Amino acid sequence: MLCRPNSSASRNQQAWAAVPYGPKLHDFLQDEFLRTFWTRLMRNPIGALRELWAPIARYWPDTSTTLLSLAEDADLLSTGLNFEQSAGNVAEYFDIPLIMLHHFPMRPNGQLLPMLPARLVRSGGLLSEWLLWRATKDADDAQREVLGLPRATRPSAFRTARRGAVEIQAYDAVSVPGLAMEWAKWGDSRPFVGALTMGLTTGADQDVAAWLAAGKPPICFATGSIPLESPSDTVEMISSACAELGERGLICAGGTDFSEITIPDHVKVVGAVNYAAVFAASRAVVHHGGSGTTAASLRAGVPTLILWSSADQPYWGNQLSRLKVGAARRFSATDRNTLAADLRRVLLPEYAVAARAVSAQMTSPTDSVTKAADLFESTAGRKAV
């Protein structure tokens, strides 16, 4: 198994042999770039996209070398979003099937921005694929030349689709209304399996469970893996908003260090927790809007407030608003007053009712893993087109 250096998979090798692959997360994209990406995109779209895609081209040769050393005699090659273009070329070289794991609707579609005409949104996605290919074409051409493959004339997504690649959609169709119908023409090549999670327990789970049992369900704040710029201001904002609403607050710190900050009695700060257990025991959840965390809050059946910063986060915020199970706001535009107002809104009874209804349509974690495993088994050994 190839995994990002310093990832949980690379540290937990009981079930598989983990090989470092690609750069560390913070070497790939800097925190500051992620926080300011959408501002940059609005000011200079082409420049922002080039900066976003530059690491793909920079690390392309290294990923190709690693894959070539390990994929020979493999029955199948699987890849995540990053470097799927490099993996596609290697799969073509060895003539083996390819599975791509998408935690977000990556291919052009008309559902990501429901406030805009579907045709316009779909065309924008198609343009983005062509721009990505042009921005990384030198790396693509160089790899294909080394492998003795024909020079590419179309983006990687077109080439892998022609070879019969399976693009597993690791999220639920219900979370993006209309997408399953729009993509029905792709048949079994874009199956929806639901979010994949290992459901690991953590050392904080018992302590958190005791705190949860000692009072009414809290509002859970999952801050994500990217460190917050000002932890003290964040705690002040959260504690003030919760106090105004008469709620308890549980902050799941993730990548932020809160150890030097005084925490009020009605707020508890912990590190990594089991989101499935904690979210389900909360009255509402506030998080950054990443694909995995969004799926966890939807499965929990509780209202969600997404305070987004970058990447796919605003898109998931749009979808939750569309489903009427939550709301979204840019994190940099959030203060104590807006947080209290947004929470007051999502705590209305109709949001809880809608959240429970969507939760009932979500694929269970066990079924998601089973569906994905079945796809791997049925695809392995199958000759690519």
Core attributes:
single chain; 385 residues; alpha/beta; Rossmann fold; 6-stranded parallel sheet; 17 helices; 49% helix
What is the topology?
Elements: E1 2-3, H1 8-11, E2 19-20, H2 25-28, H3 31-43, H4 45-71, E3 77-79, H5 84-94, E4 98-102, H6 118-135, H7 137-147, H8 156-162, E5 166-169, H9 179-182, H10 205-213, E6 219-222, H11 231-245, E7 249-252, E8 267-270, H12 275-280, E9 284-287, H13 291-300, E10 304-308, H14 313-323, E11 326-330, H15 336-346, H16 349-359, H17 365-379
Parallel strand pairs: 1-2, 3-4, 4-5, 6-7, 6-9, 7-8, 9-10, 10-11
Helix pairs in contact: 3-4, 4-5, 4-7, 5-7, 5-8, 11-15
Q: Any idea what the radius of gyration is?
A: 21 Å
> CATH architecture of the largest domain, please?
3-Layer(aba) Sandwich
* CATH class identity of the largest domain: Alpha Beta
Number of domains: 2
Q: What is the terminal-to-terminal distance?
A: 25 Å
Descriptive account of the structure:
This protein has 385 residues and is α/β, with parallel strands linked by helices. It has two domains: 2-195 and 365-379, Rossmann fold (3-Layer(aba) Sandwich), CATH 3.40.50; 205-359, 3-Layer(aba) Sandwich (Rossmann fold). 49% of the residues lie in helices and 11% in strands. It is built from 17 helices and eleven strands. It has a six-stranded parallel beta sheet with strand order 8-7-6-9-10-11, with helices on both faces. Strands 3-4-5 form a three-stranded parallel beta sheet. Strands 1-2 form a two-stranded parallel ribbon. Strand 3, helix 5 (84-94) and strand 4 (98-102) form a beta-alpha-beta unit. The radius of gyration is 21 Å and the shape is globular. The mean pLDDT is 90. One of its GO terms (biological process) is antibiotic biosynthetic process. Pfam families: EryCIII-like_C (PF06722). This is Glycosyltransferase family 28 N-terminal domain protein.
